[in-house]
Amino acid sequence: MKPTFFTIFATMLSVVSALPVEQVAELDVRQTRANADDLKDGKCAGNVFVFARGSTEIGNMGTICGPQTCSALKLRLSGDVICQGVGDRDGYAADLASNFLPKNTNSGAINGAVKLINQAASQCPGSNILLAGYSQGSAVMDNAIQALSANVKSQVKGVVMFGFTRNAQDNGGVPGFPADRTKVFCATGDLVCFNTLTITPAHLTYGVNAPEAASFLAGAAGQ
User: Fold this and answer.
1) Which of 90, 135, 142, 170 does the annotation list as catalytic?
2) PANTHER family under this entry (predicted)?
3) Does residue 27 carry a pLDDT above 70?
């Protein structure tokens, strides 16, 4: 039996409350990096990173693994990357209830991500597009990639999913997208990777995977 909306919400609160004090303090510090709007600000670089955060996360990049992956990419690519989050203004509110929909997110969120990816392709036609999503954001990216035109999809060089909520349903990948350009991180004990919506402490650990994710994305882009 799937947990209720309120069970998930209460579980998430209890998990965050149980974090060590120093880890909570780290979350507070990272809030300053919870937004990235380089693409919307008209910037381009050799690589464009678009990220969708998890449910209830702040800003458009969240705090669990979005800012960390952006920073790791900047180090790995010597700064030749811009970062853009999919946020409320794009139609993705990162609400809890949308996790229960058939696509594990809503159409507004998917359309918002598609719009940003299309903007990256048109605004920066010579750039590599790199995508990632965490938790509900992984469902957003999974569905958005499937909705892209063939031309835009070919510009997407690498995709990373953290705590992939559609991991079981989509057999560990994105339907219609090359497996060798996709990497899924599912922490031991993270039950959302097994077709449940039960949140455990493991679901909050993906910041540690940022360097490996950045290396994979850079490699997929041939760099």
Assistant:
1) 135
2) CUTINASE 1-RELATED, CUTINASE 2-RELATED
3) no
